[in-house]
DNA sequence: GTTGAAAAACGCGGAGT
DNA sequence: ACTCCGCGTTTTTCAAC
């Protein structure tokens, strides 16, 4: 779904508004970008169809769900086979506490962001991680405070 | 907005549905949780008012915005005054390429997730970071591949 | 807390400029 | 490609169980 839809100034403004707040009515967005509702609606449709807007979600308060602790987990591995990777990936994907998962360059092979209620719960996730695949080095860093978290991407680099 | 709204099984199911996809109609959600639309609507209202649902946003494709490169930046500092912190925080908050920003325990003091088009653009962000406040140690790790990214938090820990 | 239905608002599409 | 306008649906409110 990676499409090459050209994004003009109005399209960018629509994206900006929607990635800040997707609850506003079509009419408000239309007015904000200086369009009537029909063409604005069609633009939003195209943005969704082309995959530029991937989905629309509700962001839930982590405290309310009792997962206020964020842990970053750095993983090093000695095994670098395709088979091992697929297994590791499947293991990690299936753990709902893992909300982000990256393959890295440099000395760390993988980086995970995990959300849990406390350190004891993290230990359970840790055990699940190392149980899923063969041995590797794991190093955990705890976040004391979330200073910024946004799903809004910067719009300044659009070609 | 940190409220102690009790979350029952139906409330959790509503949250789960909405954090997967906030576009579905009220009627669909109501049917899925086995409620008629009025009580379901009231529950969602309460979840929003109490702050359990923080906001509703559109997730935009990073490739389409030409910010396909994720960099994790570890920051160490020698200065630990309140004044320095406030200045650093303000600097970082103002940089739109920084999408996540945590104060950490352990050897690293702060961890940032930065999204940019390429390494050259990252260098510009790096310069902006070190220009904002006094000297500190900065270490950058590049993500080669995003294996998982979700805004959906696990629901299994609700008390 | 639930239901069903009425009132209001909105999304969506067509025809025209 | 946008504006205007109206139909059909959905949200939202209300009265009653």
UniProtKB/TrEMBL annotation, chains A, B:
Lineage of the species this protein comes from: Bacteria, Pseudomonadati, Pseudomonadota, Betaproteobacteria, Burkholderiales
Keywords, ordered alphabetically: DNA-binding, Transcription, Transcription regulation
Coiled-coil stretches noted in the UniProt entry, renumbered to this chain: none
Domain HTH asnC-type: 7-70
Record protein name field: Lrp/AsnC family transcriptional regulator
Gene3D superfamilies from the UniProt entry: 3.30.70.920, Winged helix-like DNA-binding domain superfamily/Winged helix DNA-binding domain (1.10.10.10)
One Pfam family matching this protein: AsnC_trans_reg
Cross-referenced PANTHER family: DNA-BINDING TRANSCRIPTIONAL ACTIVATOR DECR (PTHR30154:SF17), LEUCINE-RESPONSIVE REGULATORY PROTEIN (PTHR30154)
Highest taxon in the source lineage: Bacteria
């Amino acid at each position: 779904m990676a499409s090459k839809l050209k994004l003009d100034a109005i399209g960018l403004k629509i994206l900006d508004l929607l990635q800040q707040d997707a609850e506003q009515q079509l009419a408000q967005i239309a007015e904000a970008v200086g369009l009537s509702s029909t063409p604005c609606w069609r633009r939003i449709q195209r943005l969704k169809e082309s995959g530029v807007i991937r989905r629309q979600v509700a962001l839930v308060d982590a405290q309310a769900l009792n997962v206020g602790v964020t842990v970053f987990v750095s993983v090093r591995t000695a095994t670098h086979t395709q088979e091992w990777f697929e297994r590791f990936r499947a293991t990690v994907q299936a753990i709902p506490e893992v909300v982000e998962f990256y393959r890295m360059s440099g000395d760390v092979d993988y980086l995970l962001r995990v959300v849990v209620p406390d350190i004891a719960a993290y230990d359970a996730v840790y055990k699940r991680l190392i149980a899923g695949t063969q041995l590797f080095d794991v190093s955990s860093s705890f976040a004391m405070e979330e200073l910024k978290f946004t799903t809004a991407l910067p719009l300044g680099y659009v070609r």
